[in-house]
Amino acid sequence: MKILLAIDGSEHSKLTAEELAGRPVPPKTEVRIVTVYTKPSKMIAAEAVMLSEDYYPEINRIALKSATNIIKDATKILNKGNPKFIITTAVIDGSPAQIILREAEAFDADLIVIGSHGHGAIAGFLLGSVSQSVAQHAKCSVEIVRNEKAKK
After folding, report:
1. How confident is the model over 28-74, as pLDDT tens digits?
2. Mean pLDDT of the chain
3. What confidence score (pLDDT) does residue 129 get?
4. 0.90 surpassed by pTM
5. Which long-range contacts does 17-25 make (Cβ < 8 Å, 24+ apart)?
6. Burial (CB count within 10 angstroms: exposed 0-12, middle 13-18, buried 19+), residue 28
7. Each residue's pLDDT tens digit, 130-141
8. How many CB atoms lie within 10 A of CB 151?
């Protein structure tokens, strides 16, 4: 079995990883952990606000480091819950829903597991829910894990 775990570093993602880690799965289950970060775009009028030329590379370095730490934390959770998982990871720059769908297809995933932030129907519509978009467009099964613990 091949499972793509999409995480973003939120409490919902942590609980989603814990949920997956505690499940019985077939031997040799492969899990690909993916997190997506967005490189900061350069402002057109950057000179007007007097930003250092090092500003954007530094912000990008911080975002990449944070995403890498998110992956490390999820890997620890999965290894602790089920040390027999075969785990690969990816930290990718881009649009979360598009990247998750692309990675799932490239990985030939049987299942995508993603957390829900629980914004509700109206907020999801207005904010553009990543989990909703993934569920609508994925070529494999998608499980959206709702975490009541994260709301408290």
Report:
1. 999 999 999 887 665 544 454 566 777 778 888 898 999 999 999 99
2. 85
3. 85
4. no
5. 17/73, 17/74, 17/77, 17/78, 18/77, 18/81, 19/113, 19/145, 19/147, 20/78, 20/81, 20/113, 20/145, 21/77, 21/78, 21/80, 21/81, 21/82, 22/81, 22/82, 23/82, 25/1, 25/82, 25/85
6. exposed
7. 888 999 999 999
8. 10
